[in-house]
Every structure is written in structure tokens, then in C-alpha cells.
Amino acid sequence: MMEDADVYIEDGIIKKVGINLCVPGGARVIEAKGKLVIPGGIDTHTHMQLPFMGTFAIDDFYTGTRAALAGGTTMIMDFALPQKEESLIEAYHKWRAWADPKVCCDYALHVGVTWWNNKVPQEMAQLTREHGVNSFKMFLAYKDLWQLNDEELLEAFKACKEIGALAQVHAENGDIIKENSKKLLALGITGPEGHEMSRPEEVEAEATMRACVLANQVGCPLYVVHVMSKSAADVVRAKRKQGCVVFGEPIAASLGTDGTHYWHKCWRHAAAFVMGPPLRPDPTTPNYLMDLLANGDLQTTGTDNCTFSASQKAIGKDDFTKIPNGVNGVEDRMSVLWEKGVVSGKMDACRFVAVTSTNAAKIFNIYPRKGRIAVGSDADIVIWNPHATRVISAQTHHQAVDFNIFEGMEVHGTADFVISGGKVVVEDGELKCVAGAGKFVATLPFSPAVYSRIENRDRVYAPRKVIRAPYDGVVTAMNVTLASVESQIDSGDTSGISSSQGNSFYGRGRRSVPPTSTSAVFNLHESTFSVAGDQPCDQSPVKRSSIKVNNPPGGKSAGSFW
Length: 562
Ligand SMILES: NC(=O)NCCC(=O)O
Ligand SMILES: [Zn+2]
What we know:
It is a single chain. This protein is of the alpha/beta class. The chain contains 16 helices and 16 strands. Helix 8 links the parallel strand 11 (222-224) and strand 12. Helix 3 runs parallel beside helix 4 (150-163). Residues 495-562 have low confidence and may be disordered. GO terms for molecular function: dihydropyrimidinase activity; metal ion binding. Its cofactor is Zn(2+). InterPro entries: Amidohydro-rel, Hydantoinase/dihydroPyrase, Metal-dep_hydrolase_composite, Metal_Hydrolase, Metallo-dep_Hydrolases_sf.
């Protein structure tokens, strides 16, 4: 909703909203006529000072959050990413120790589930209960580093659901990437174009689909980070249309530029765009993603801000797999979104606020403290000038990195004033922020924007058994030893395989024994057994031991079968 009103702030909180407000004498007045007074942006996805690929991201929690404020973003959500076997709680504390003294704006943490054993879900629960973390990111990529296999993913999704957290996924198939990378390097393709060629769209789309299916099977809500391609976005859209609880996050890079840069003749230029999943060479991708964002098929915007300077990128000068992955965006996200989303006519100012701030606040359960201008909300406010223009450049940006992937782009929409926690930190374009002024924002589990639907779906789709009269006919005995079967076959008598004999079944390479029709058990290799449709054992419910009803009707529903 948009209204014409004044906003009065005291002690970092919005105290009044309305016309002709009565305010204490001496209160500072900032004139915003002709401009928009909007909630500060929330960047859902950053990696400040991430230790990664042999180096650290060059924008740390100070330069990164300072740049965020300059562009109208008043809160970032970063990721604590444990090394293999490292405690998730230790990683969380490590990130807090890095961020707390440096952040100029508020921040929250997602935590990565980068490995799995039975201690991990306990730590996830503790992080949710005691440390203000309500989202966990799992990687389907980065084989041998952070990648989980499908069984581990299922466990992680189940754990998220149990504790009311939102499962996030980096959706790319790491096994395929590894295989393709080897092939390309063997062909002598060592430059940044190899990065995109090793992980084309379908590699992202397959992983997106797999994550959606796995999460849906255990009734876990899912958030797909950095949606980079049309086909991955189509998966999110289709799954939402089918009723799955899934959210999609395109980023400033995927909305504002494309992957044609990987073929640029200057190595440094091409390497600057290397990130995972890659930007797509199809130049119609940004418009396509923006349309989905404008129309509600995608919900939030992040940046995946993870910056590396020229010399850091050059770690991979002879091998694209070694180029540190990551691009800028935290400073320019709001302007890129305004230019490509609003000025283009795809979305109005209200939708702009939704996708840059409010939707994130709702999904991550910090609404209406964040993402809204209302009495009681944090005074994180931007006075947005929709008419002013600027040209994005590494020469003038506030980030530490020496390259800007939006270099030369003229954008309308600038943050003339930025108020963070009630303090004016950008004034007519001038930055006045202080390291450590930002606060950690705890995010609580069971976000209503995410879990109210889950609870209802669990109830509606809870598995129910069919009530029927018990079967009272003859039941073939199952316990059979191979020796007894063989001796009976040798003697030509296959009629009386008895229950006192042990388990066995026919082996494919064995002597010419009859197929499973004469056996008391199924040989899956030889039978026509199918996981779909009627099974030969359908008449005998007691034998379908592989199907478990997790929650019998009447019991608590966890909705495992939808
Ligand atoms: N995305 C990227 O290229 N770098 C940061 C690590 C990650 O999110 O994958
Ligand atoms: Zn990321």
C-alpha cells in the first residue's frame, strides 16, 4: 500500500505515521516531497569475507555493509558455512565474531549444512532454539567440499521441517560439473567460458527439480537461492503452481546482466563474472526472470555478493575451475531492480518494495519489524529518488572490489537518504556509517509466511489407510532355503515350499530354475515388479514391508506422502 504521510522516528523505532504529526520541538526534518519513503532493502544473500577457493572474499562485513547502505540496503543476510566436519555452532560463532564488530547495518545469518551425521540435526535445532537462525542452506554442488547426496538432503530437509526452519538450496548438479570440467580442461578449454560450459542451464534445472521433489516428499518448505536461468525459474514456477511451498530468489546479477561476458576477449573481464550457478549466455534471461519476479512466480532478491579482486580471480588464470566464484551486487541491487523492473514497466513501486524488502522480511519471519513502514517497525528507511540517475562504476562504488559487473549501466533510482536503526547514514549521497553500529537480527522458526501452509498441507494430505475386511484366504509361506528349493526342484516337486525353511530367492545366473512365479518371494531382476500400479502382492498387505505409514490416521501428521 502507498500513502501520502510523514514518518516520525525516535530511538531507532518508527513512532508515528500520518499527516500533520505532532512532534517534539527540535526534531530534525528531512523533506521527501516528490520522492518515495520506503523500507530499507533486505539483501537475502551475501558472503562477506567468505573463506573460499583458497582466498577470502575481499568485501568484508565493514566494506560490504557500508556499500549496502550506500545503495539503500539496510539489512543483509549472510551465510555461516562450516568446513566439512566443523561444528555448525562453531561456524555460527566464528561468523558472529567476524561480523559483529564490523557491520554498519543490521544482519542475520543463514547456516550451511555442508556435511552430515547425526549430530548435525541436533546442532540445527540448537541454532534455531538458541541462536536466532531459521534457515539452513544445502549445496547440491561443490563436490568434495560442501555437496550433500540425496539421502543427506532428505535428512536435512526432514530436520528443517522438524524445527520449523526454511531449507535453502544451491541447486546445481555437482557430479555433472566435475565430469564436464575434466572433459573441458582435457580439450584445452581453460578460460572463463569453460565455467559456463561445464554447468549449463539444465544442470541447474535438474538440481532445482530434484530439490523441489525431495523437499516436497518430506513436506519441507524450500527456498531456491540464486535462480540464474529460465529453466530453473520455470521449475520453481511449475512447482508453485502444483502447490509446493517453494520460493525463488533471483539476484541482481541474473536480473541485470548475462553470461555473454564469459566469452569476452579480456580474461580479467570474463573472470569477473564467474559465479555459481553461472550467468546465462541467453541474453533474454534477465528480462524473463524479471517478469517472473514482477508477477509473483519468484519472490525475493539477493545478490550473492562474494567479491574477488583481479589478483584473486587470477588464481584460476590457467584453469577455470580455480577461479574464485563470486560477483558484486550488494550496493547496486536496489538501483538495478528499479531500472530493470520499474522503469521498464514490469512492476510498480509497491512490487519493488515487496521484492527488495517486504517478502524477505515475511519469509524469514522478521516482519513487521523489518520490511514495513509502520508504528513499531525498526527505523530502517530509504528516501528513494526515482528521478535521479547515476552511472554504475567500479571507480565510484563503495565496495572494496576493483570491478563492477554493472559497469557503465545508467540507472534511475538513487538512495538520497538512508536511515539505519534511526540514524541518518546516507545524506545526499554522502556516507556516514560506523563499524559495529549494525545489530544481529534473530530470525525465529515457524515463520507464518512459510509454515502456515505447511501445517495445513500436512493435515489435508495426511496418509489414510483403507478400512477393509481382513483377507481370510490361504497365505503362501515365505521362509524358504535355497537348498530346500533346489532339492524340491531337482525332485520335480515345487508344490510344498514350506514356512519352516529360511529366506532366499533365485539368482539370475543360477541354474535353470523357474522364474519367480514358482518362488515364494520376488526376484526383482526377473519379475515384472513395478513401483507403479498393482503389485503381485497387493492381495497380501502383510508382505508389503517396504511401505510404511509414518503417521497412522488419528496420530500427529507429518505429511510424508503428498
Ligand atoms: N555463488 C558464488 O559464486 N560464490 C559464493 C558461494 C556460493 O554461494 O556458491
Ligand atoms: Zn551464495
